[in-house]
Amino acid sequence: MMLWVPVVCALLVDAIPQAGAAVYRHLDAQGNVVWSDRPGGIRAEVRPPRVLSSGRVPVMNQGAAAAPAPFTPYQSVRLRPRSAPVTLEQARRGVSLRVETAPQLRNGDRVQLSVDGKRHQSPLSSRVLMAIGLDAGAHALVAEVLDASGTVRQRSPVMTLEVVSSPESGPVLAAQP
């Protein structure tokens, strides 16, 4: 098990001299520029990339870790019901769902979509979520609000989305409390 430590050390020691190795620029027979570590072309100077920075480095308190701000619940979180029928083809391509929060979604908070009790979309700082690849039938949709640490803090009421195989199949969507 400890055999990998000497192997890694040997590889690192072997790589250190190559970190400052020369790089040469050549032209091949077709006139293409070729970079190589073999002499024969023009030696090129390789500089480390420039990193853009504001020049300010945040100072962290080395004492006790700062406690996260307490989560303040939203007055309301809900998915806006759709008025148009959702066909199987539309559901497979993606159905956009508008999330309404009062007040507006705060900095650091994100929303994600849960379909039939399973996370369907990664958390986003957005007011529109997408339900993609749904099969025919009824699906329970819930918008979940996550705080900055990724903890689900609040959920919308369940909205039932009925995906029909054709637009003539009848009622499509009902919001349930």
UniProtKB/TrEMBL annotation:
Q: Which residues form the DUF4124 domain?
A: 15-70
Q: Name one Pfam family in it.
A: DUF4124
- Report keywords, A-Z: Signal
Stored InterPro entries = DUF4124
Signal peptide positions are 1-21
Protein name, UniProt field: DUF4124 domain-containing protein
List the top taxonomic levels of the source: Bacteria, Pseudomonadati, Pseudomonadota, Gammaproteobacteria, Oceanospirillales
